[in-house]
């Protein structure tokens, strides 16, 4: 197995850090390794302790490396949070080839032209997503490669993030001994994986309920159109259990994972468990019904907030409904509560790969899906550069190490990051 065929995603969440190894083989990819570690240093999706986060990343990567016995050097890193912003842009270029056939270089140039937008000094472009291409006035083109034309235009969505958040994320990954191949917006990758073409075209909402936050992403017209983050998630359920049962948070988390049920009707009164109460050495017995009485109101509140936020973003009824992902969705009864509160079509998205058939892995597999899709596009365009084996000098994000960066690295996202970090020196 050649390293050329290996691609790795890193999903740094509030409760877990996950490293997922994918193998590209004859145009398809399989998941061959998964590493997971408890996340330390992350609160509500934001990094609050660099050293603890670095150690969590190392633990997850070591776990994945042991599973497949390869050394991971480059990763695609997922990013999300309430600092993410979207704005529309338009780019126009003249087709450069003498025979007027549109090639990969023309697409790169028109996307670069779309990047020329005014941004506040504390913002940085993460990615540019093409909604449609226009060739000599002909609209609605998704892939213009190979077409004949004189004028190429693109309607694009610019994804931006806070420089500080990007800097801290990349610093953590670099300090853990890894090189960042690229940043991937987690809702964008997860949406490509979890949503069907019709769902993205007609309009639907991807709801990722993690431990520390809930990310809402609206897809419409085949592309991402809005995103927002609510500072509430599965940790709030755990805290409610800890207060309700008067026990330690660690015990509350274990009880939630083993006996948790989000719907009172489905809870079994005969299922019992014991917890050690704070301030006492005596265990007290509770039933699954007692636990559901604590969990259900909080889960209801989460989906009520989701519905309110979607209305605030300017969307009322989306034909595609809601697609739910995230570790919290593994709890029995959550889907029924969501259907009652959202009053529309709701389903849970689960990656269809062995070893990651859990809603909590949707983000990590989505990062892989996005990265591999871009690799295929570049390879189809005639670019045969290795995606993972090539030394990744382009990814040294530490300002102190900026002078060691390769002089020949491709200008673009990482070049802008290098310029950005010069401001921190």
Account of the protein in words:
There is one protein chain. The chain has 425 residues and is of the alpha+beta class. 34% of the residues lie in helices and 29% in strands. It is built from eleven helices and 18 strands. The protein is globular. About 7% of the residues have low confidence.
The biggest sheet amounts to: 5 strands, mixed
The sequence of SSEs as H and E is EEEEEHEEHEEEHEHHEEEHHEEHEHEHH
Label the structural class: alpha+beta
**Could you list the spans in which at least 5 consecutive residues all have pLDDT below 50?**
381-411
Mean pLDDT rating: 86
Strand numbers in spatial order across the main sheet: 3-2-1-6-11
Secondary structure tally, helices:
11
Residue share in helix: 25-40%
Instruction: Round the Cα radius of gyration to an integer and report it.
Output: 23 Å
Assess the beta-strand content as a share of residues. Answer: 25-35%
> Shape, please?
globular
Number of E-state strands = 18
- Beginning-to-end CA distance, first to last residue: 42 Å
